[in-house]
Specification:
GO terms for molecular function: histone deacetylase activity, NAD-dependent; metal ion binding; NAD+ binding. There is one protein chain. With 513 residues, the chain is α/β, with parallel strands linked by helices. Among the domains are: 222 residues, Rossmann fold (3-Layer(aba) Sandwich), CATH 3.40.50; 36 residues, no CATH class; 64 residues, no CATH class. It has twelve helices and twelve strands. Helix 1 crosses helix 10 and helix 3 crosses helix 6.
Length: 513
Amino acid sequence: MTISLQLNAASGEPSTRRTLSDISLGVARSKKIVLVTGAGISCSCGIPDFRSSDGLYALVKERYPDVVLKGRDLFDASLFRDPASTSVFYTFISQLKRSIDAATPAPTHRFIQTLDAKHKLLRSYTQNIDGLEERVGLCGSSSQQAKTTGKRKAKLKVKEVRNVQLHGDIHRVRCTFCSAEMPCTEEHLLAFENGKPPNCPECTSRSEARVARSARALKIGTLRPAIVLYDEPHPLGDDIGTIQTSDIARKPDMLIIMGTSLKVHGLKKLVKDFAKVVHATGTGTTPNGAPKVQKNWQGKVVFVNKTPPGSEWSDVIDYHVAGETDEWVEKVLEDWKKLRPSDWEVQQTLDKTGETSGFKVVKDATAKTKGKAASKRNPDVENVPPEDPFISQPVSPSKKPISSAPSSPSKRRQSASHYSDVESSPRKRRDIARIANDMEKLDMSDMRLLFTDATNAIKNTGGGDDLVMGKLDLSKPKVRKARTPAVSKEDNPESRSAAKSRRGVWVEIVQKA
């Protein structure tokens, strides 16, 4: 049973005020809201709706009484059969397009964007062709950003689309022959004002290319506004059906209908499908088998419009708020800020003068770990050039380098050098430290004996085998020979030890003059 609420009487009747507050609380607590909007949300922008006394249908009948019998006939696909009605259609659309260009988004459009920014909007479905939702930041289904690019037929990106345009977009034109779409420019509007559609540039270029190859010309289509008329299939009907099926599977918890009379058959089916899922929110059984108790703000279908819904919606719509949509959304935002002020807390920053302007409490962005404390990672371990193992200091066994190797060997970062003293094994680090200590203790002066230029020089005629240190003479060629020490037959221990100490030393023989 639909409950009617007068928005103007909210300040007087306590029951009405309490019910409207519960609806506002439902908007604030819901996480998957589906919105269905019509032309009524754009009336405050200066754009007329369709079926009201001062709507588009009445305006068409007043301006062209002899051409069409009803205003609805001007938005029917059968108008293209008559050249006179087609000319009137193009002229009327050009005037409507200019009035839409001069309009600005209403508070209702900004309310939809707020729901999306608060991550509460599951999807928005609109019958409007004005594209005002896209001006406030909602990507529409007719936008080029929401379509795939390539040689194949363009498809919608489900995750990118935030506003599904059920009746197309007046800001784009489509070819009647090749179905190519492009933005509506001033040149197109000038042609529409004269009642004649412009030719499609895509068809024209292909036809001219064939004529240049001495082939027959192709048929050239005309451009028309990329809106969907009555009794006309939607070019993106399959993709929109996929989006609707995906949203129903995600189980929305609230349905808001604003600014539409619910007369179109396709929209009626869409609303009933979503309402069935929304009413099931919060119902079922708990893991213990007890039935769940649905809260008073869960699973509600709210209809906001000046005119009440028909009798067929009594079991579908829970609340009918009679009034302007802009006034209702402003009340919802006001109640939302009072009931849940934490949802509107924004982190502020210091200005240049260093003064603070009312900091508010925000959640700490630092991640907290549960259980064991997470191991601290040293940022200086990675991305450092490998050091020379003979120069670096030995690694202390008590201070082990901090390593944060992943669990999988295939995901480990490849080191720049396999001989890094940080990333090597403990055994390699001990070897490197031992070699470094030995090199520091080594006396380099003893190595000069390996490169002497004069050895075994005889100082006296008595003949003594003494080593004579001197400079290398490069003027004369010298022959390097290995001297084998002679061992006396007397087998003197001292001579044997002296010979053994000189064994294997490379010396140079110099003849003394």
